[in-house]
Amino acid sequence: MLARKLQWFGLAIISFSLTGCVTSTDKYNALKLENESLQKQLGDSDAQARAERARADAYAGRLKAMDDGSGSQTALLSNVMNQNDTLKAQLADVQARYEKALADGSRGGSVLPTVVSDALTTFANQNPDLVDFDAARGMVKFKTDFTFALGSAVLTDKAKSVIQRFAQILNSDAAKGYELMVAGHTDSAPVSNPETKKLHPNNWYLSSHRAISVGDQLMSNGVGAQRLAVVGYGDQRPISANAAQNRRVEVMILPTTVRSTVVTAKKTPSAAPAKKAGNGLNKDTIAPLDTRPILNK
User: Rounded to whole angstroms, what are the CA distances from 199 to 71, 191, 218, 273, 275?
Assistant: First the structure.
């Protein structure tokens, strides 16, 4: 009986020992897994912290760069504003002289020396289809219907030849010191032809581009750039109920001399971006050339 009890007691001890070992192993494994998980979380947190520090440093660097550059940006803005003010003043001066020349011309007589006025009168009489000369205002007017291709700011070959002769008169001893103002004008019909609008979105562009073309051609024939001012008035300065008369480029010979009267030959490529339209389309019509009236803007 005692032996049986001892046997049962021994089995109980063994069983308890085995159960205790299993429980300790499970706890160990669980703690090991937990430790590994915590280490991984710690590594992830550290990497995230480093990334956040890097982003913060980069942001701080950008702020510093912006702060360091604020002075130069302010200076640049100030410079642009000053340039704009200068350009506005120059434009106001040109327009004031243009208005004065028009007003002086209404008083009659000629504002230019007789030799210059006579030469320009002869010049206009020789080219009546392209040119008018107003001696009272000292103004040569180019009729754009015959000076440019339809809907274009490109001078015709004949117009280039006529402007070459005009430049010779302007460069003569009697006229070479005078300032020149080239003013482009259109009629009131808006630009509508798609091909024309690609280069001249509206009448302001078209009038300006045509004035630039005439100015460029004068410079390419030896008229000094320091003598020239160029402006486009669009349809804002009509002179007649006749639209064709309003389409014009005027060259006002101002009775004022430039600081330097040295005339320097200067070859300048045409600044007018237009090119001759291959389809012969005017901005106002798409009728065939042989059926539509000669309208040019």
Answer: 39, 11, 22, 7, 9
Give the whole-angstrom CA distance, residue 21 versus residue 27: 10
Q: In Å, how far from its chain's centre is CA 230? A: 17
Torsion of CA 156, 157, 159, 165, to 10 degrees: 160
Q: Please list the alpha-helical segments (H only) found in 106-202.
A: 114-126, 144-147, 157-170, 194-197
pTM: 0.57
* β-bridge pairing 178-185 and 228-232: parallel
Question: Mind listing the pLDDT tens digit for each residue in 26-48?
Answer: 666 666 666 666 666 666 666 66
Q: Structure tokens of 40?
A: 């991984």
Count of helix runs (H) and strand runs (E) in the chain: 7, 5
Report the C-alpha gap between 36 and 22 in whole angstroms.
21
Exposure of 277 in the CB half-sphere (CA atoms within 13 A): 22
Edge-to-edge strand list for the sheet holding 228-232: 131-134, 139-143, 248-257, 178-185, 228-232
Q: Is the separation of the CB atoms in 128 and 158 below 8 Å?
A: no
Q: Are 191 and 206 in contact (CB under 8 A)?
A: yes
CA distance 19 to 13: 10
Location of structure tokens 């010049």: 123
> Which residues touch 250 (CB under 8 Å, ≥6 apart)?
139, 140, 141, 142, 181, 182, 183, 185
Mean pLDDT computed over 267-284: 44
Arithmetic mean of pLDDT over the chain: 76
| Joined tokens for residue 124 | 């206009």
Q: How far apart are CA 211 and CA 230, in angstroms?
A: 6
- Between the CA of residue 146 and those of 39, 151, 162, 234, what are the distances in Å? 89, 12, 12, 18
